[in-house]
Design a protein that fits this description.
Helix content is 29%, strand content 17%. By secondary structure, it is of the alpha+beta class. The chain has one domain. The protein starts with 19 loop residues before the first strand and ends in a 22-residue tail after the last helix. It contains 4 helices and 5 strands. The strands form 2 sheets. The protein has a 3-stranded antiparallel β-sheet with strand order 1-2-5. A hairpin with a 6-residue loop joins strand 1 and strand 2. The longest helix is centred in the middle third of the chain and has 12 residues.
Amino acid sequence: MAQNRKAFDISKYQISPSNEKKIITIAETGDELEITVKQLSWNKRNQIVSNCISLGKDGVQSFNAERYMKEMLKEIIIDAPWGATTESFLVSIDERLGGALESLVPTAFGGEGGSNPDEIKKES
């Protein structure tokens, strides 16, 4: 018995080559700024996550959430009022702007916890 299945449409699962403008509001001041971001591929996000995981001398894995946040922001922000999003820019901003920019970053791991290092467990 043949079933009527729709053809699989791979285009629904590929990242868009277009960039997206986002308005970010800094909650404490009410200031708004427009930033252009790009969507990352599944593979690129996984590369960044992998680069932020390290194995300690005791064999325990740890996740560097600070590095993840910085690397993601440098990768996804392609146009902003300050110009290039660099390491030196990111270490120069205060927590109000930093917190607003964090909203752009996808969680490192699935689930409610986001990039919680407790979610990284030592493999048996």
